[in-house]
Design goal:
By secondary structure, the chain is of the alpha/beta class. The chain contains eight helices and seven strands, in the order βαβαβαβαβααβααβ. The protein has one domain (7-240): NAD(P)-binding Rossmann-like Domain (Rossmann fold, 3-Layer(aba) Sandwich), CATH 3.40.50. It has a seven-stranded parallel β-sheet with strand order 3-2-1-4-5-6-7, sandwiched between helices. The structure holds nicotinamide-adenine-dinucleotide.
Length: 246
């Protein structure tokens, strides 16, 4: 699972799962572009990556804005001399039951979680096609398969990632570009801490492995998919849930 000399972009890498993915890829030897919409957290992650002895550049870009994504990828490819790995991790939730779900909440979630992945993948693909090599890993959610009360917008976006991942995997396979997705279950991040305890506790009790995931649990699987150990995998959707909802 060696990533020495590889160049990677991780979106939403200022905190949570994205941050751990960036650190894990750096531990394995990759240089990083740390994207986040939050100008405070992106440089912090970049500093931690640099402390591991790898190159890291923090770039503040909103993945739902095409111009910002194009600029992000242009700078990334210029600064690192190409791009080998894209981890589409940035994601948001705006929870509300159907009858209270506002157009704005629907659009925001679909724009970041799904359109953002489209923009980032489309922007990075030309440099990967040129070098006939690339690894694209999309962060979906188990809710994309199971659905969830109060999360129709989020679940729809995460299910959309499955169709997108498989379609692009088929299109880019001829260029030796692997496109896979990970479906995390419950992972201990600020996103999860937004769920009220009375809803969270019963969910945790249903997890066969008996605990919520750590961001590292997801990062380990992403690092595998980013490596040549996973070179015969494409269009795969890996559930990393502790057995929850199997
Ligand atoms: N935590 C969980 O239980 C869980 C479960 C399943 C899937 N996921 C998915 O994992 C991914 C990471 O989630 P997390 O739990 O670390 O969330 P988080 O809220 O802790 O971190 C998300 C990061 O993305 C950034 N971000 C948000 N909108 C952005 C945008 N438009 N452009 C760029 N960056 C943006 C945020 O600033 C933040 O740093 C998301 O796609 C999420 O849907 C999380």
């Amino acid at each position: 699972m060696d990533l020495t000399g590889k160049r990677a972009i991780v979106t939403g890498a200022g905190q949570g799962i994205g941050k751990q993915i960036a650190l894990k890829l750096a531990q394995r030897g990759a240089d990083l572009i740390i994207d986040d919409i939050n100008p405070q957290t992106a440089p912090q992650t970049a500093q931690e990556v640099q402390a591991l002895g790898r190159k890291a550049i923090a770039i503040v870009a909103d993945v739902s804005k095409k111009e910002e994504v194009d600029e992000l990828v242009k700078t990334a490819v210029r600064e690192l001399g190409g791009m080998d790995i894209l981890v589409n991790n940035a994601g948001i939730a705006r929870s509300s039951v159907l009858l209270r779900l506002k157009d704005k909440e629907w659009d925001e979630v679909l724009d970041v979680n799904l359109k953002g992945i489209f923009y980032c993948t489309k922007a990075v693909a030309p440099s990967m096609i040129k070098q006939r090599y690339g690894k694209i890993i999309n962060i979906s959610s188990i809710y994309g398969r199971t659905g969830a009360i109060g999360d129709a917008n989020y679940a729809a976006s995460k299910a959309g990632i499955v169709g997108f991942t498989k379609s692009v995997a088929k299109e880019l396979a001829r260029y030796t570009i692997n496109v896979n997705a990970v479906m995390p279950g419950l992972v201990d991040t600020p996103l999860l801490r937004g769920i009220p305890e009375k809803y969270l506790q019963p969910m945790i009790e249903e997890i066969p492995l008996g605990r919520v995931g750590k961001p590292e649990d997801i990062a380990n699987v992403v690092a595998f998919l980013a490596s040549d150990d996973a070179s015969y995998m494409t269009g795969a959707i890996l559930e990393v849930t502790g057995g929850w909802n199997m």
